[in-house]
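REQUEST ID: PR-0412
SUBMITTED BY: lab tech R.K.
PRIORITY: routine
TASK: structure prediction, single protein chain
INPUT:
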Amino acid sequence: MPKSLTIPLLQKEAAAFAKAESKHVEPSLFGVTDGKAVGTYLEHKFQVALQRRFGYARGNSAKGIDFPELEVDIKVTSIRQPQSSCPFKSARQKIYGLGYSLLVFVYDKRDDEANRTGRLDIQHTICVEKERTADFQTTSGLLRLLANKANRDDILAFFQERLLPVDEIEAGNLADEVLRSPPQPGYLTISNALQWRLQYSRVIEQAGAVGSILRLK
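STATUS: complete
OUTPUT:
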């Protein structure tokens, strides 16, 4: 009977995997510049390694995230432009977080021309716990307003200034929720698009220095 996968075990395995993978040379990666292809390679290899040792339910497109039981999703990104896309559910995610944690592998890809191999030097392995997955500027702006005795109209004006993708009814409901339950500071940069665009520069800078942003490697 395989051992059940837990979040501490996932974090430990991710750190060990990143260390080993950083030394691995891979012919199939030589010349590959498509970040999506690199991400698919790394995620698949990590999942295969985990499945040899642990029992857990793998996510799929219907469930939306890689580890639905643990509420964790894997993100793989290049250090040259540390960002990825993410399904849009509602504007509330910018304020209260994505609803799940992120396990982020940040790599620098290096090709060996002589041997025609590629290597992923995984420079950062970071766990962003779900309470820190909101947008930094949105949450910090709201918290400044609340500290300055903001009312509902002030919050609604802020939403308009930030071009938060909400209709009038949703904006009103969100403003009431913010007044009732102020958000925690988020550390992602989340850009509006058909899908959220997540950027990780601040997470990389703050990993290990801010609670709930854990530097695993």
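NOTES: The helical segments are 7-21, 35-51, 92-96, 136-147, 152-161, 168-180, 201-206.
REVIEWED BY: pending
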